[in-house]
Amino acid sequence: MAKRASKASKASGTGAQPSGPHDEAPSALDDLSDLLDLTPDASSASSDALPDALPDVPGEEAPDWPDDVAWDDDAPGGDDRPLAERVEADLRVGGALSRALPEYEERSAQIIMARHVAEALERGQHLIVEAGTGTGKGLAYILPIVRSGKVALLSTANKALQEQLFYKDIPFTQRHVQDFDAALVKGMGNYLCLDRYGEERAFQSLAQTRGFATLERMTDDEQWDGDLDLVPESLPSEVRARVAADSDQCAWRACPWFNECYVKRMRDRAREAQVIVVNHTLLLLDSAMGGFLLPERDVVVIDEAHHLEEEATRAFTVSVTPGRVNSLLALRKLRETADDRTQHEVNAANTAAWEALLRVIGPMPRGRQHLRAPLEEGLRLADRVDDLAQSLQRNRPLNMSDKDEQLFERLVKRARSLASDLRTVFGVRDPDARVYYVEMTRSGRRAPQPEVSAAPLGVADLLREKLFDRVPTIATSATLAIDGDFSFYRARVGLEATREVTLPYAFDYPSAALLYLPRLRFEPAFGDASGPYLDEMAEQMRTLVEVARGRAFLLFSSQRALDQVYQRIGTGFEAEGYTTLVQGRDFARVELLRQFRERERAILFGLKSFWEGVDVPGEALSLVVIDKLPFDPPDDPVQEARVSRMKAEGANWFGGYVLPNAILRLKQGVGRLIRTRDDRGVMAILDKRIYTKGYGRQVMLALPPARRTERIDDVRDFFACD
Ligand code: SF4
To answer: Which residue's CA is the closest to the ligand 1 atom numbered 8?
Structure first.
């Protein structure tokens, strides 16, 4: 067992982007070795230093418990009861929590989950748990881990969920159950680099950018851990980019600020912690490195585990843009050191490669386009970038300081890594294991540029070898199983768990919700034939919104469907005094949500990003309408390649891949409605294929156990009781 002690602390990690499966992409190995040098020497900050208020975070809720209750000092120390019994006792009325919190209510699903986690911990087993909203699953895994004394990595899908765990669930457990050390590990780019900050400060004495004075005050605060997300007044993004830690510009031990460095302090804290909160990207990078990046651990918990396949695919995808080449060429040290002629050749080869690429796939590709054959001009660019790395080596300056030596080394590695990635994406050498594609991407306000990528066709073998075969893993989410069956999830991510558990719903769905599944006239249709279908869908949505008096999410599977339906009914809603909020038209996602919560009778027209991770408890959201079953677009190269491979293997590509993906996404979508015990409302799915296709029954079985109807009058009656 990894050793650790106790007290709430805080940590961070490196932010370098993984660039590909490390056994296939030498560039990734280069990145990884950089990161090894930079393994976060954790920072620490006691729980006293934590901010008073954090943004609302969707997902599991930690109640706002009173602060004045001490943690349970008489927690079992020499208790020889099985761990499952001990944690159950903590969670039952009469246990540690209810003694500390007079209004404590035990939750049966949480107790079941905590028992399974405890047993899995004691036996060193893998566990998969589907736990719906309201279970309180954070506490259900943190509590057994803490009571077991084991060291755990807790991985979640994004920063917001990391903060939810670190600033709410963990302090709650420390305060009311048992004290222990915890660390938050974010990407390196989230932390202030003292070296870069020093340079920026000199510049800011003239520029005086808004927010910089606040940052200066933060650096005087000994409790602050360098996390730029916690600076109360946000910095302009270009200033933040100039002061954030960056592995390419970090001399690490040779840096004069090393001893005070926030990244180093974070690393120190993480080493001492019993519970280390990370995100999936860091976890996957660490796994690819054989566990060298993050501290030793006894168990890994993957929360929001339904993201794992997608995150692993992203983490192991190699991508290159012309901008990446240009930003290397723009580096002052490179311009001063490499031969002019070589620099010009790289520049010319860069232009030639991307022009050639656009000749192959068309000038402005829509969506992702397959790259099916090697691109010679791209491979020539890779050779020229290799020349550049050699030129740097040849002209290596003499008598550099330690710091400059380190930074020069990183510059050479960066050039080599780029050459390797270019060779990977333009070489199209491994079509059985990777899919190669091009898409237009945009960064900030810059014009769109082509990006060419090589994505892994499958991640299960990699995850099994690098993660699950090495450490017991607990995977949990609200959407992992299809009617209690985890075989799809198991196959996609490679996690063969000894235990698979579907917890009972935490909410009383039959009383709280109505599921409206109308038998429509038209099936979903596309292109010119879609008019009648869209008319019918728009009419259904209009009626539902009127019956619910707004307070609705209208969720679409495509931009086109959203636009077409909005054209039909959007202005009518506005004329009737509803507030319409349209994704992509009005505000960024966070602001759209804020407006939705604050406005009465609001209607949100949303796309994929509103199908999950969005939390609007209470009456503000009383109706969720899904336009159709959310099958992946068949022309996406990654989906297409995965389906093609399954077909070639004679596997059931529809029932074993396409349908389960759609069902899990549908569960996420309808799951937006009921977020607390007091919520009530209507979920509607406007897709007649639920009745007409053979797979409809499977879809029905996967939906929450709300009362079901195909009659709009039942919806009227439901809201009449509001
Ligand atoms: S070691 Fe120095 S350069 Fe690296 S992140 Fe820390 S302060 Fe910045």
So the answer is: 193
259 CA distance to ligand 1 middle (Å): 9
11 close to 42: Cβ distance less than 8 angstroms: yes
Tell me the chain's radius of gyration from C-alpha atoms: 27
Out of 41, 195, 267, 401, mutate this one to test ligand 1's pocket (max ligand atoms within 8 Å of CB): namely 195
Helix (H) or strand (E) holding 625: strand 623-626
Residue 253 CA, ligand 1 centroid: distance in Å: 8
Report the residue among 35, 264, 266, 403 best suited for mutation to probe ligand 1: largest number of ligand atoms under 8 A from its CB. 264
Q: What stretches of 338-463 show up as alpha helix (H) in DSSP?
A: 340-361, 376-394, 402-427, 460-463
Of 651, 616, 611, give the one whose Cα is nearest residue 630: 611
By most ligand atoms within 8 Å of CB, the mutation choice from 263, 266, 267, 268 for ligand 1 is: 263
For 238-253, give the DSSP string. Answer: HHHHHHB--GGG--GG
Query: Which of 186, 258, 404, 407 most suits a substitution to test ligand 1, by most atoms within 8 Å of the C-beta?
Result: 258
In ligand 1, the atom with minimum distance to the C-alpha of 260 is 7
Helix (H) or strand (E) holding 91: helix 83-91
β-strand 318-320 against 449-456: which pairing, if any? Answer: antiparallel
Beta strands across the sheet bearing 275-279: 182-184, 275-279, 152-156, 299-302, 473-477, 127-130, 499-502
Quote the tokens at residue 114: 């905590």
Return the DSSP state at 143: H
What's the pLDDT tens digit per position in 8-51?
A: 454 333 333 333 333 333 333 333 334 333 333 333 323 322 22
Task: Say whether 455 sits in a helix, a strand or coil.
Answer: strand
Query: How far, CA to CA in Å, does 78 sit from each of 81, 86, 145?
Result: 9, 11, 16
Residues whose beta carbon lies within 6 Å of some atom of ligand 1: 193-195, 245, 250-252, 255, 257-258, 261, 263
pTM exceeds 0.85 for this model: no
The vertex-348 CA angle with 342 and 350, nearest 5°, equals: 100
Query: Do 541 and 711 meet the contact criterion of CB atoms below 8 Å apart?
Result: no
Burial of residue 607 (CB within 10 Å: 0-12, 13-18, 19+) is: middle
For residue 196, how far is its CA from the centre of ligand 1 (angstroms)?
8
Which residue in 128, 68, 73 sits closest to 499, CA to CA? 128
Residue 216's alpha-carbon distances to 198, 212, 226, 229, 232, in angstroms, are: 10, 6, 11, 14, 12
Nearest residue to 282 via CA among 294, 300, 265: 294
Give the alpha-carbon dihedral of 646, 650, 665, 139, to 10 degrees.
Answer: -90
CA of 245 relative to ligand 1 center, distance in Å: 6
Q: How far is the CA of 618 from the centre of ligand 1 (A)?
A: 45
Alpha helices in 186-245 (DSSP H): 194-207, 212-220, 237-243
Q: Whose CA is nearest to atom 1 of ligand 1?
A: 252
pLDDT in tens, 628-680: 999 988 788 998 999 999 999 999 999 999 999 999 999 998 888 988 888 99
Look at 14-18, 174-178, 374-378 and tell me which has the smallest mean pLDDT. 14-18
Query: Are the C-beta atoms of 474 and 129 separated by less than 8 Å?
Result: yes
The residue written with tokens 């005050």 in the block is 217
193 CA → ligand 1 middle, Å: 5
C-alpha distances out from residue 47 to 63, 142, 169, 224, Å: 17, 16, 12, 11
User: HSE (CB half, 13 Å, CA atoms) of 586?
Assistant: 17
**Ligand 1 centroid to 243 CA: how many Å?**
10
| CA 400 and chain centroid, separation | 41
